[in-house]
Design goal:
There is one protein chain. The protein has 248 residues and is α/β, with parallel strands linked by helices. It has one domain: TIM Barrel, CATH 3.20.20.70. The protein is built from ten helices and eight strands. Strands 1-2-3-4-5-6-7-8 form an eight-stranded parallel beta barrel, surrounded by six helices. Strand 6 (160-163), helix 8 and strand 7 (203-207) form a beta-alpha-beta unit. Helix 5 (105-118) crosses helix 7 (138-150), helix 7 packs across helix 8 and helix 9 (212-219) runs parallel beside helix 10. The structure holds 1,3-dihydroxyacetonephosphate (13P). 1,3-dihydroxyacetonephosphate (13P) is lined by residues 9, 94, 164, 169-170, 207-210, 228-232.
Length: 248
Amino acid sequence: MSQLLVVGNWKMNGSEATVAALLGELALAVQTSGVDVAVCPAYVHLGQAVKVVASSPIAVGAQDCSHRATGAYTGEVSPVMLFDMGCRWVILGHSERRQYHGESDALVAAKLAAAIEAGLSPIVCVGETREQRESGDAESVVAAQLLGALKAQAGIDSLVVAYEPVWAIGTGLTASPQQAQAMHAHIKLVLEGIAGVDAATARVLYGGSVKADNARELFAEEDIDGALVGGASLVASEFLSIVGAASI
Ligand code: 13P
């Protein structure tokens, strides 16, 4: 199995001062110790972040990107620009973008194609709502999101999928390790059936209220290949504990 991957999604948080402080601490502490680590600050802090982590093993990613490489798309940020300025990862299809910005699977697919073309490594987010889980539809919802984003792609090496049940994001409710493991195994099965996806090298991260005190038991599950961390990634000690749990 490939190395675990721990990614901090900072969402719409931070200032130049807090980015400098948080990344300064992480850059000093994170070693090349059998775990891949990335942080995804807001667009306006990406340039600063790339400079601060330049001599550390921490990579920088964006939280979204345009579905186009260049052109008249006011307010958008191109994946080509992101790669050019030192970003190596991009989160796509996060549930907050699906919920607040109406992103469809088709748009996620178009962004994914543009991101791959630009050389970025994509983290494709999927996950069901509480209602969908309660009505027994969680697996079919996640399968449809995966197929919608991935089935028309030309070819994807080193794909990363993040399973983020919407009911566990920012709520303090975490999927139990067993619930997460069951869905991750399902995701890997679905990936095996999608042409162009190398399921054997794909990593499936768990996201949704991951903290220092639950990371270890999540990472102990066979098909949990890392974490996409929201709130806890804004606190250096918490994030470093999660990275530490992944390095063992
Ligand atoms: P929390 O860790 O704050 O629940 O957020 C998860 C998330 O949405 C990461 O992308």
